[in-house]
Amino acid sequence: MSDDDAAAPPVHRWVGIIGLFIAPTTIITSVCVYFGLVYTRKFYGYFGIDSNAIGFTTTDYVTTSISVLYAPILVLLLAWVALLWAGGYARRLAQDGRRTTLIRRTAWAAIVVGALGVLRGVVGVLLPQWAVLRHPLLTPLALGLGPLLLVSGIWLLTLLRTEAIPRPYAPAERASLFVAGAMMLMALFWLTNLFATTYGEREAQKAAAKLWTKESSVILETSDQLDPPPALIKSSTVTAAPSSGNPKETVVYRYECFRPLVVRDDRWVLVPAKWTPQSGYAVVVTDDSANRISATRRKDIARTGAVNWKASNGRDGWQCPEVAPRSAYQLPPQ
Fold it and tell me: In this predicted model, what pLDDT tens digit does every residue of 270-281 receive, in sequence order?
């Protein structure tokens, strides 16, 4: 035997071990990227922004997915532990010959309900117009709980068998278990997708509700004239006089009352402090020589009178906290 032949088995063994880790890691990363993308698109879509214009990376989506997948994974782990405890308790009852009638009735009830659930899930996918109670959650729930109840009911019936030696699964039974597992996995993916969508929209609504009292505000000065709604953004024009270095007048447009929604590299996504779904406005600005972005912070602005300030002189004053009179920022006595 040559040295190469002797070294081949350990190499193959290590390749197999590495493959066991690489494949699950790739799948987990892909799942995290997908759900992070779903959440991000829904969050910024609420503000009328395409997330592709911001330039998020795969790492950003994976990081975002942590908060999205935390609740589904926690619920899944708790459900798994509950099933293990319930299964262990049912096994002890069956081995001791206690409550066999109750176990048998429970098993058949689970089989019947599970079969109806599978039927409802299949109809909801193939013929949704014929589905009963057309709620977005019913079809994935039926596809997930139906096979689970079927498998659980059949397993409970096997506990009541008197054979001392368990018989191996027949090919049809193994195929049925595989199909049931695949259906539950697809239903879990579907439910998590719905959760990520709902979670993204709710987080966007929370962010929009806090824009007015947000401590950080942005002033945008740019050579490009924008057309923001006058009821949302305070705009003015600054003209620089000619100088020896610049013989022409320079017109700079100044826009106030912006809030930073996200900053990614040199891109700033800005929305007005008075943003609402009915009258929304957003702008994606690149921080370069043509744009000047000034960020300020008003600590504890929500506790001051600035957030309730209303201009009384019309056009010269504007109703946003950062342009309120200085006296409006005085904190109330403790």
Answer: 999 989 888 889
